[in-house]
Amino acid sequence: MRNLLAGSSLLIALFIAGTAYAHHSGAGVDRTKTVTVEGIVKQFKWANPHSWLEIEVPNSKGSTDIWNLEMTSPAFLVRAGWKSTSIKAGDKVKAVARPFRNGDPGGIFVSVTLPDGKVLGEQATQPAY
Amino acid sequence: MIKSRIGRRVAAAVVAFSFLVGVSDLTAQFQPPGALGALAPENLAKPRPKPPFDLTGTWLHGGGPDNGFRFTPPPGLKLTPEAQVHYDAARKAQSEGKVYRDDIGQCWPAGLPVIMTRVWPIAMIQLPTAIYMISEFMNSLRVVYLDGRPHTDPDIAVPSFNGESIGRWEGDTLVIDSKYFVPDHHWIDSGIPGSDALHIVERIKLIDQGKTLSIEYAFTDPKSWEGTWNITKRWRRVDERDIAEVSCLPDLNDHMPTTHSDANVR
Fold this sequence. Notes:
With 129 residues, chain A is mostly beta strands. Chain A is built from 2 helices and 7 strands.
C-alpha cells in the first residue's frame, strides 16, 4: 500500500543533507514529499557508511515491490535510539521515506514504525556531532 | 678487513658519502637503501625544534559562519575552457534536479581537498617526522612529511587522490605543500575538476585555545582555472569521537538507488 503524504521538514532535510549524503548525492529524491509504505522487512543492513532497509511492499498488481530505503550511518542511528537488532527480516513495519521523483520504489529513509508500535527515525535523541 | 690507516679513512669517507647521498635522495614516495622512513626510531629520535602545536586528536569539520563543507568557487573565478564545459554541465544538471559526475557516490576517493570536509571526523596523529591523517570516510589516508624530505621527482611520482604532502613549520603555522594529484574522477566542487597540475598550499593554525583547527587554502590549477583560489575552513576538536572502518563495498551501492538512478549525469 502506498500512501503519499505531502509535507516537508527543514530540520530533517538539513540533517539528511549533512549525514546521509556524505557518501553520495541525494539528487533524484523529492525532498518536499514523504511516502508511507507498509510491508515485510526483507533486509536491514547495519553498516558504514550507510545502513539500509529493504521492505517487500504489496503493489496494485497483486505482487510485491522491493522498497529500498537509504539510511545514514550507525554512528547517527545509535544516537537516534537504534540498535543493530531494532529490525529483523520478517518484521511487519510501516516506513516513511522521501521518494524518488521518477516513481521507482524506494527513497531516503525518514522513520519506521516497528511491530510493537515504537517509532524510530534518524534524528538524534542526544546532541549530534 | 681494512688494515691501513689510509684505507680506514677512505672507507669511512665512502660510508659518509653514501649516507649523505641516501639522505638527499629521500623523497616522499621512494626511500633509497639506507634512508630512514618516517616511522624509523632513528629518524623519530633526531633532534628537531619543538613544534608550536600538536594536531594529534580527532577533528570534525563544521561550525560557525562561512564554513560550509563545499569548496564553492569564489565569485569571478575564471575557469579554463576545458573546466568550463564541466561546470556548465554541472549547473545544467543541478537545474534539472540531477547531479553531475558524482564520482564519490560511485566509490571513487573524494581526494584532497574534499576529503577534509566530508562530514566524517578525521583522526590525526602527529609525530616529529610526519602527520598521519585518516578520515573516517573510506578511511582515506594522508601523510604529511615533516622530516625535511623534498617532493618526489616528478618523473617517478605516483599521482593519487590526496596527493603528496610536505609540511614545514613557519612560526606558529604549519605550511603544507601538496601536489601530484590524479587528473580523473577528482573534483574540487561539482563540475570543477582538479587536474594533474593542481597545487594546494595549506596554512594551518590552532585557534580558540587549541579547540579549533583553521586551514587557509590556496589552490592553483592552471588547467582548470586562472590565478589562486583562496578559501578558509575550520574544524573543531571532538575528543569524544573515534573513527571506525568505513568502506565503499560493491553491495553498498546495490542498495543505494540514488547512486544509480537516472538523476546521475555521467
